[in-house]
Amino acid sequence: MPKKISQHKTLTKEHLLLPGAFQMTYPFPFSEQLVWNALTDGETWTKWLPITEVIWTSPKPFGEGTTRTVKIENDTLEEIFIGWEKNKELTFFFNRSSLPIRGFIESYTLTPTQNGCELTWSVYIEANPIILPLLKFMMKRNGKKGFPKLSSYIGDNRDKFL
Question: Each residue of 75-106: pLDDT tens digit?
């Protein structure tokens, strides 16, 4: 049975600079273009995170203002992209979701390196202080487990992302 979806607070990129936000970096042995193409492919998210479906709800071409709906088992997340710079930055916040939060924003920034690129993942969550540590722990765990899976998936499916 689907859970109730609630409106969340509109968050901005400035929230990613507040105390309580966290970042994680991961080196990829691929160009920014390959990683970008993977991050903007809905199906790919189901390969490296516990996401079951990604539905783009805006027509192409995608950019700032693009929307998508993400399913994670019985939870639904409705996202709005507020940062979209090809091969460089992807930032979105949860407009509405069935999660027990007040606000959520995350950003993926790609920086070229000698051996490929580095992804910087930034997250800020507003939630009840009792559950906030658990939510942060789960997000960090998803990143630590997920980024190596994403790297392997890109390597195994390189032609898909050229």
Answer: 999 999 999 999 999 999 999 999 999 999 99
- The domains found in the chain, sorted by start residue, are 6-161 (3.30.530.20)
CB contact set of 56 (below 8 Å; sequence gap of 6+): 42, 62, 66, 67, 68
**109-to-92, 121, 123, 146 alpha-carbon distances in Å:** 12, 7, 12, 16
Enter the pTM of the model. 0.96
How far apart (Å, rounded) are the C-alpha atoms in residues 162 and 158?
Answer: 7
What is the chain's mean pLDDT, rounded?
97
